[in-house]
Design goal:
Elements lengths: L8 E5 L5 E5 L13 H17 L7 H9 L2 H4 L3 H13 L13 H11 L4 H20 L29 H10 L5 H10 L3 H5 L6 E2 L2 E5 L6 E5 L2 H8 L20 H17 L11 H12 L4 H8 L4 H7 L6 H19 L7
Antiparallel strand pairs: 1-2, 3-4, 4-5
Helix pairs in contact: 5-6, 8-10, 8-12, 12-13, 12-14, 13-14
């Protein structure tokens, strides 16, 4: 008879004389019959779980993930952003034992390309979160350089619809004309201030005073103030009276939830798409892009657009304003260039 010792378990009789078995590292019970195939399968599963929850080795990606997740920077993120980041951190767990010194641009590209199996946007988000992680690690002396810094995003395939595309003027008018009375204040806030859905639905009544809207973005906590344009003032003045503490309320006079507003928007959008009054692909978040494009076409610089949208940096403002029609502005630029080159420099006349 061969006796096999099984490491990592605690087996004993309870006060009723029944055998109990626990996995030592996780403290979880093993309920399968001792010594059976199911028992060893459960033991292997718990051993794997213990390895995943073990303290990561120093100098590895896992160490960086663990420390960043425990940092004040991560904890101060908006809940939605923190959830999105956590999804990426969970995706990176299988390579947690990779030493930080092994990361270079090529490895980041391979990780990005592998993540593209879940979609282009997720792959680009993985690359962006890696860059944030590495930047955070550089400040604490874990790395010398950021290997993700110069890695490009995977481009959108030609012909693929743009996510959150800007609305046309005709689409904005069609939506406002057809929207139920209770939806118009929130739609107008998004349309004429560039607030996202959650930010437009959350301001209390007192945030609208002196014909202006003052609030903070939920995601960045950046302050936003907009003197209300005439169409927004009109929409707020004509809004149905209600007792909700929020500026915007549904048909029952209660504050909108984001899910509730999106459901009503979906019904309105499908109806207008069916009648051809709007094109496909219209999103509420596309109104932020719309405001950015209009401001860019008005000639405002990226820092101003970023401030108007409540962005900390100009990168997202540049992204939102992409596709702006700059013909009017460029006519002035080319006219000045033409005068400088053809009339002054060609004839040898120096500018004042």
């Amino acid at each position: 008879m061969t006796i096999v010792r099984i490491k990592g378990i605690k087996r004993f009789r309870d006060r009723h004389g029944k055998w109990r078995c626990y996995h030592r590292k996780t403290g979880l019970p093993i309920k399968a019959q001792f010594g059976s195939g199911d028992f060893f399968e459960e033991l292997a599963r718990l051993d794997g779980l213990a390895r995943q929850t073990a303290e990561p080795r120093s100098g590895t990606l896992g160490m960086l993930l663990t420390q960043y997740r425990a940092s004040s920077e991560f904890k101060s993120l908006a809940p939605r952003t923190r959830t999105d980041y956590q999804r990426v951190l969970d995706y990176l767990k299988p390579i947690a034992d990779t030493p930080l010194m092994r990361f270079d641009r090529g490895l980041v590209v391979r990780i990005r390309d592998k993540a593209s199996e879940r979609g282009r946007r997720f792959a680009n988000y993985v690359k962006a979160v890696l860059s944030i992680l590495f930047s955070w690690g550089i400040e604490r002396g874990y790395l010398d350089t950021n290997p993700a810094e110069r890695v490009k995003n995977i481009r959108r395939p030609k012909g693929a619809p743009e996510a959150n595309r800007p609305w046309t003027d005709a689409e904005r008018h069609a939506v406002l004309d057809a929207a139920p009375l209770q939806m118009k204040p929130a739609l107008s806030l998004m349309m004429f201030t560039g607030l996202g859905p959650k930010d437009a639905l959350s301001p209390p009544r007192h945030f609208h005073k002196d014909d202006g809207i003052g609030t903070r973005r939920y995601k960045t906590r950046e302050a936003v103030f907009w003197p209300a344009p005439a169409p927004l003032r009109e929409a707020l003045a004509l809004a149905a009276k209600h007792d909700a503490i929020m500026l915007c309320a549904n048909s029952d006079g209660r504050p909108w939830t984001v899910d509730g507003f999106r459901a009503s928007w979906r019904t309105l959008r499908l109806r207008l798409e069916k009648t051809g009054q709007i094109g496909p692909g219209l999103t509420l978040y596309g109104l932020r892009h719309t405001v950015a494009v209009i401001l860019r076409e008005c000639g405002f610089d990226e820092r101003t657009i970023a401030d108007a949208l409540g962005q900390k940096t100009i990168e997202m403002a540049r992204h939102y304003a992409r596709g702006a029609d700059l013909r009017a502005k460029m006519r002035g630029v080319v006219a000045a260039f033409d005068v400088e080159v053809n009339e002054r420099r060609t004839k040898g006349v120096k500018p004042d």
